[in-house]
Amino acid sequence: PMRPVAHAAAFVVAYCTVGASAFVTQSSSAPAIAVSSPPAASSPTRRLAPLREAVVATLDGKDIDNEFTPINNYMLVKVAEAKEQSDGGIILTGKQKLTKSEGKVVSVGPGRIYEDSGVYIPMPVKAGESVVYSKYGGTELDYNGKKHLLISDIDVMCKFQGDELTLEGADVIYDNVLVRVEEKNEDASVGGILLAKSSAKTRSTKPTTGEVVKVGPGRTAINGELMEMDVEVGDFIKFRDFSWEKIEIDDKSYSVVRMNDILAKF
Known about the structure:
- By secondary structure, the protein is mostly beta strands.
- Helices cover 2% and strands 33% of the residues.
- The protein has a seven-stranded antiparallel beta sheet, with no helix packed on it. It has a six-stranded antiparallel beta sheet with strand order 18-19-15-16-17-20, with no helix packed on it.
- It is globular.
- The N terminus is likely disordered.
């Protein structure tokens, strides 16, 4: 026989699983009790190290994170490799290697401005062109493991395309003039005494006359006007002592002279 249970509250138990929570529902005569699963343990916050900027280049053996950009009227030039073999086929080593005052332009600054007038002078060369520059100009540096120079536009004598300087491809800039000259060694002293070869070489005459073969466009004056060149191709000129830069083109000697160092023409 069934035993009655007096005054017992009837319970209806229902289990519902929603996510990670279990709920127990009682009859209307008893309050509802909600049981939730304990919160999951939060993982510790991982602090990420700041990302290091990518290395763009090396300068004098140190990594740099930005492009190396010349300012004003300066340009970065990669110096041409020294010549390791003479024209006669002799292999040169050490200090015997023939160095050239040539290189390829890597990057250029925006140009310069005359402070007194505000006239802007754009750069006469651009990246990718090759240049011949003054032997004593520029600041040497190591860029990406190679010898480079920082030079100004006034250190550049002429520019050309490609890797080999030729007379046809040479393009003098500003008020520069390219002159064909001939060097002669004095084999005798003024008194007629014959000199040894070593002495003759040291007494090599430095010509200050020659034939004009290339003429630059001229120099920009402070007012922005292009100054006229007073010589032209085919003229013979006389110029100041020690005012020129010697360059070799197609195994021949030439001098680069500025217009204001030319004394006369004939």
